[in-house]
Amino acid sequence: MDYQLLAELLFPNVTETPDEVQARFPYRNLPEGAVVTRMAPSPTGFVHLGNLVQGMISERMAHQSGGVLFLRVEDTDAKREVPGAVEVLIDTLKHYSINFDEGATHDGDSGLYGPYRQRQRASIYHVFAKKLVSEGKAYPCFCTEDELTAMREQQEANKENFGYYGKYAIWRDRSIADIKAQLDAGMPWVLRFRSEGSIENQFKFDDLVKGKLTITENDIDNVLLKSDGIPTYHFAHAVDDQLMRTTHVVRGDEWLPSLPFHIQLFQALGFKLPKYVHIGPLMKMDGTSKRKLSKRKDPELALTYYKAEGFPVDAVREYLMGVLNSNFEDWRRANPDADINDFKFSPKKLNPAGSLFDYAKLTDVSKNVISKMTAEDVYSQLLAWAEEFDADFAQKLASDKDFAISILAIGRGGKKPRKDIAVWKEAKPYMGFFYDEYLEAPIFDKKFDKTIVKTVLEKFIAGYDPADDSAVWFDKVKAITEQIGFTSDMKAYKADPAAFPGTVADVSTFIRQAVTGKPNSPDLFTVMQILGKDRSLARIQKIIASL
Ligand code: GLU
Questions:
Q1: What is the pLDDT of residues 268-318, one digit of tens each?
Q2: What are phi and psi of 391, to 5 degrees?
Q3: What is the maximum alpha-carbon separation in the chain?
Q4: Following CA atoms 391, 392, 393, 399 in sequence, which dihedral angle do they give, to the nearest 10 degrees?
């Protein structure tokens, strides 16, 4: 067979040589050990936690080694593409601080190794496809869908492996005359890889996460180019990772079954094989068993979920880093205020079987992260969240910035900061009562007569002086307690509750409910200081009038 002739027949318009293409993408001038890696998502419109995990791992490996992270859009499957998906992807990853050094952007591409969208690279793939054909490593296949279906049915009936191989690879050794006749008749064709592998053979392979793997050779003649000339993922990624000078491929372990083919492909193309980091899936507990997070069952798989709930980006990243590297939590305890990027991430510490995602733990981490932020920081992040998800609340926050910040400063700083909120969504229920429009009517405990509540409130107003410090303020509350026959002695009350109609805690609650509408709130003395005398007392007056 004259493979050179076949290559010309199939790709008459391809004139560039592989060496010329390679020269257009020079080797990168980077320090020894620098990792060049990429995120290579398909633009399906759904950005999930797995993307973020892959992004964080890739970003850390690239940037902590002085390397490069780029974004390549794998849009070879036009059927799955959703309009606007690339933009959603870029924005979402940016929101989570996955910053690319080069690649697809909102307005085209940035970087010297583009185009970074695979459909725009069709002519590049054809150069390498032509090379493979000219070396007898790829050939056209004219099988129809019906023929392929019949083949599959036969394989099923014979209990044989599926795929295009051995006696089923009917176009593998056809004559030039046969091929030419089909081409002349305008028949559509796909380009297939000529596999020299055998499932009888195994070889060893080292994955940075999975460790030493024993791999069975691939014997299938997989498709490299589809009938429209667009490559399959397999072929496109090999060519791209070579030309973009990728050193490490970080991807989900659902790609492991394709690895034998990928290794063959790199070898056939004369490319240096990158290092592989195959990440196990994210799992969750479902009853007593673990299962993969699922798009259908688990809303928390989608990254939009975390944004809408209002998890700070730092909290999600902090939590995930702990999931990915078990030594992260110890490091964090030793370096409570360090930048997360000072932690040395290691792919070797990833659990090869996958990681367990624990929503409750994420919430705890988030509470912690928020409790350590400054009030100004909380304000700006909360405002940004509210602007997108609660316009009315955003308007309140923005209308008096100092007021909002003084609310958010309650219990902040010091050794044991308050941990009131885990997500921005919880901020309104927590602090909404400061705003008159969100203030709810209190529901007093029915156990107490209305007149008692009223008396307490009247006495409180009469004695209130905003100049009091918190100790004097509380002494006054205790004095009212005694005056109405309740007790301030909680020990005595606990020993014999029946001996007292109520306690100082009940009295405080009446006042708290009158001011905040709720039986629980941050420190009431501070709340009243922030609200100011007039607003605080007006609220209490209004309640008195309603009793
Ligand atoms: N386009 C593939 C995906 O979305 C990329 C796999 C890879 O990173 O090589 O899963």
A1: 999 999 999 999 999 999 989 999 999 889 988 999 899 999 999 999 999
A2: -60, -40
A3: 111
A4: 100
Ligand 1, residue 39: give the atom nearest the CA.
8
Contact at 8 Å (CB) between 247 and 35? Answer: yes
Q: CA-CA distance, 49 to 262, in Å (whole number)? A: 26
Name the closest-CA residue to atom 4, ligand 1.
Answer: 41
Quote the tokens at residue 85: 């998906």
| Distance from C-alpha of 82 to C-alpha of 47, rounded to nearest angstrom | 12
Question: For a pLDDT cut of 90, what percent of the chain falls above it?
Answer: 91
Name the pLDDT band for 89 (thresholds 50, 70, 90): confident
CA dihedral defined by 163, 165, 168, 172, rounded to 10 degrees? 130
pLDDT at position 78 is: 81
Please name the residues in contact with 179: beta carbons below 8 A apart, sequence gap of 6 or more: 6, 9, 140, 142, 171
Decide: 237 in ligand 1 pocket, CB within 6 A: yes
Question: Among 252, 277, 242, which residue's Cα sits nearest to residue 62?
Answer: 277
* Residue 74 beta carbon below 6 angstroms from any ligand 1 atom: yes
Instruction: Decide: 40 in ligand 1 pocket, CB within 6 A.
Output: yes
Structure tokens at 235: 């072929």
* Separation of alpha carbons 121 and 114, rounded Å: 8
DSSP-assigned beta bridge partners for residue 138: 193
Q: Is the CB of 249 under 6 A from ligand 1?
A: yes
pLDDT at 79 > cutoff 90 = no
Q: Rg of the chain's alpha carbons, rounded to an integer?
A: 33
Among candidate residues 65, 64, 71, the one with its CA nearest the CA of residue 98: 71
Does the C-beta of 72 come closer than 6 Å to ligand 1? no
Q: What's the pLDDT score for residue 49?
A: 92
* Count of Cβ atoms closer than 10 Å to residue 280 Cβ: 17
- List residues bridging with 205 in a β-sheet: 213
The finding on whether 41 has its CB within 6 A of some atom of ligand 1 is: yes
Sign of CA dihedral 294, 297, 298, 299: positive
Could you tell me the two tokens for 196? 């020299």
- Indicate the top mutation candidate among 237, 259, 276 to test ligand 1's pocket, ranked by most ligand atoms within 8 A of CB: 237
Q: How far apart are CA 64 and CA 249, in angstroms?
A: 16
Q: pLDDT tens digits for 387-433?
A: 999 999 999 999 999 999 999 999 998 888 999 999 999 999 999 99
Q: Which of 38, 74, 273, 295 to mutate to test ligand 1, by most ligand atoms within 8 A of the CB atom?
A: 74
**Bond from prior residue into 115 cis (ω within 30 degrees of 0):** yes
Ligand 1 atom nearest residue 41's Cα: 4
* Burial tier of 387 (Cβ tally within 10 Å: 0-12, 13-18, 19+): middle
The answer to whether 484 touches 490, Cβ cutoff 8 Å, is no
Residue-wise burial string across 419-429, b where 16 or more C-beta atoms lie within 10 A, e elsewhere: ebbbbbbbbbe
